[in-house]
């Protein structure tokens, strides 16, 4: 297994300092430009996430360090997913990595902290981080044709819930929904809070053929979730919208399609509730 690099994103350049022309065509084994190259390093062995993804045909991940071009080490979390051709055969793997930064007690003017990209209520990624991952996912889709799909989740009636039971009850419910979504997704998916009452999930390597199974699984999991508040079980329905990304998409266009699908699901739920019909997450 040669592990030759054929694609290098803007984010990879920013994190490592290595430009595309410096790494594309090189092998990370024969010419260790990136991995920490230390005994026991998960990235340097034959069981690294890239190798495991190709051998097992399953996503893989690991934590460790990469070498920056300037010489220092960067803590990262690496995820790899197998890439198949049109006949279903594995032809390689795509590896993504994100920098893990400690949350420092600093002052203005210091580098951005992990907290700057995390939602303060739920602990998942915030909107800025979601937009960054979306830009990278679109670039990967266009350059190496790895598909992705968006799932939008809206907690229906959250403003009224907050007004009736208080902000802490609303925050508790948001955290429960976030944890439930995290547990329902694979390691190559990316979850974040898009707005006050909505979460967005980027489903990696997911096409229109596979979205139905994911949606149904998540819907079933969410259906039984809620919080205990002053001795009573409290929950809210969740509507779901989706959009499969296209090569000509921008962040705005694919999010807009998912948002419209979510609005349609919310409208259907409202209509069904008004007419007395039973309704499940759409």
3D structure, described in words:
- The strands form three sheets. The protein has a four-stranded antiparallel β-sheet, with helices on both faces. Strands 1-2-3 form a three-stranded antiparallel β-sheet, with helices on one face. The protein has a two-stranded antiparallel ribbon with strand order 7-8.
- The chain has 282 residues and is α+β, with helices and mostly antiparallel strands.
- The longest helix has 24 residues, at 251-274.
- Helix content is 37%, strand content 23%.
- It contains eight helices and nine strands.
Short structural summary:
This protein has helices at 10-16, 20-23, 49-56, 127-144, 158-165, 167-184, 208-223, 251-274, and strands at 60-67, 73-84, 90-99, 148-155, 190-195, 198-204, 227-229, 232-234, 238-244.
Strand order of the largest sheet: 5-6-4-9
* Helical content class: 25-40%
- Ends apart, CA distance between termini: 44 Å
Structural class: alpha+beta
pLDDT averaged over residues: 82
What value does the Rg take, in angstroms?
Answer: 21 Å
Shape assignment = globular
Low-confidence parts:
103-112, 277-282
- Largest sheet properties: 4 strands, antiparallel
* Helix and strand pattern: HHHEEEHEHHEEHEEEH
User: Based on DSSP secondary structure assignment, what is the total number of beta strands?
Assistant: 9
Strand-residue proportion? 15-25%
Tally the helices: what do you get? Answer: 8
């Amino acid at each position: 297994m040669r592990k030759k690099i054929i694609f290098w994103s803007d984010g990879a350049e920013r994190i490592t300092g290595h430009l595309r022309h410096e790494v594309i065509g090189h092998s990370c084994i024969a010419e260790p430009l990136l991995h920490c190259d230390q005994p026991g390093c998960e990235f340097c062995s034959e069981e690294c996430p890239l190798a495991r993804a190709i051998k097992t045909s399953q996503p893989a991940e690991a934590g460790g360090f990469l070498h920056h071009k300037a010489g220092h080490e960067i803590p990262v979390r690496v995820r790899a997913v197998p890439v198949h051709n049109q006949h279903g055969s594995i032809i390689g793997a795509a590896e993504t990595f994100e920098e893990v930064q400690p949350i420092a007690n600093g002052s203005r003017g210091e580098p951005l902290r992990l907290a700057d990209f995390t939602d303060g209520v739920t602990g998942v990624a915030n909107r800025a981080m979601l937009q960054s991952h979306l830009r990278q996912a679109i670039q990967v889709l266009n350059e190496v044709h790895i598909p992705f799909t968006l799932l939008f989740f809206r907690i229906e009636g959250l403003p009224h819930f907050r007004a009736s039971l208080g902000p802490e009850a609303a925050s508790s419910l948001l955290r429960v929904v976030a944890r439930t979504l995290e547990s329902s997704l694979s390691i190559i998916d990316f979850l974040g809070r898009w707005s006050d009452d909505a979460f967005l999930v980027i489903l990696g390597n997911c096409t229109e053929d596979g979205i139905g199974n994911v949606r149904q699984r998540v819907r079933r999991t969410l259906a039984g979730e809620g919080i205990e508040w002053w001795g009573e079980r409290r929950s809210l329905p969740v509507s779901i919208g989706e959009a499969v990304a296209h090569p000509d998409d921008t962040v705005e266009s694919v999010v807009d399609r998912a948002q419209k699908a979510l609005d349609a699901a919310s409208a259907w739920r409202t209509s069904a509730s008004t007419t007395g019909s039973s309704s499940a997450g759409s």
